[in-house]
Amino acid sequence: MLNIEGLAGKAGGAALHRAAMTALKIASWNINSVRARIGIVERFLTEQQPDVLCLQETKAMDDVFPAEPFRALGYRHQRLHGQKMHHGVAILSKIPIHDVDDACWRYDWQDNGEARHVGVRLDLGAGGSFRIENVYVPAGGDIPDPAVNPKFAQKLAFVERMTRWAECLAEPTLLVGDFNIAPLESDVWSHKALLDVVSHTPVEVAALGGLAAAHDWVDLGRHFYPAPQRLFTWWSYRSPDWTVNDRGRRLDHMWASAAMAARATGHRVHEDCRAWLKPSDHVPLVTEFAV
């Protein structure tokens, strides 16, 4: 995992940025190859100006991650955990971030070396500090049976290890990323059609429910858009025009500890990004917090 900090001469600028803040915007996006889609990432950052961006499925080793375009836009503080051609996560921030070094953080979610998790602590000065944990849960393959599908077994084991990790948390935390699970009936285009489809099966939903209960997480998406409101974050590339049948799923999430959730003032799914040139099949989420 690579730790890239801004130049020392920029520290004063970061402090001024933090001091001037009245709100904190945090974005999360499964970008499905950051190098292939750096153009739309730059557009999103320019238009929306989040303070922190969490990326999943970057598909880039740390030494080829396009760090400079992010620095040019003010995201000088970077934590990269990359993997060649697969997986990969990153946190890019305008505000200084710090490594988290405790037993809870060191809990190995992936257990196999895959680059699926990166975590940091963000210090807001008088506004306190909190953790950001960015995760890319395994998709799980096509057959929802751990006895015959090792990928599905890996997914369930991954969520179980996250659950054990969540039980030991003792500080405000924001858990974001591509969970690859749509838990509610209204989180998919057809509950009946997808009951046996990986991402919406009862066993996955139950596993995610266990994770939710392990830390009393607040699901910020459904906090601001209560079920059964439509709230999708992913549409398959297989559909020639994703807008026609709108067969979406809510696979991407932002969950907050109670103390963090109390500071949340708004949440938005940027569905328009799915129609941009060379889009990801996922769209970004942004939550705004009072500081």
Mean pLDDT over the residues: 92
Q: What is the CA-based Rg, rounded?
A: 18 Å
Poorly predicted regions are: none
Number of helices: 9
What is the ordering of alpha helices and beta strands? EHEHEHEEEEEHEHHEHEHEEHEE
- Give the number of DSSP strands: 15
User: What is the topology, as strand order, of the major beta sheet?
Assistant: 1-4-5-3-2-15-14
Strand content: 25-35%
| Dominant shape | globular
- As a percent range, the share of helical residues equals 25-40%
Largest sheet: 7 strands, mixed
Q: Keyphrases for this structure?
A:
single chain, alpha+beta, 291 residues
Care to describe what's here?
It is globular and about 50 Å long. Strand 8, helix 4 and strand 9 form a beta-alpha-beta unit. It has a seven-stranded mixed sheet with strand order 1-4-5-3-2-15-14. Strands 6-7-8-9-13-10 form a six-stranded mixed sheet. It has a two-stranded antiparallel sheet with strand order 11-12. The model has no long low-confidence stretch (mean pLDDT 92). Helices cover 26% and strands 25% of the residues. By secondary structure, it is α+β, with helices and mostly antiparallel strands.
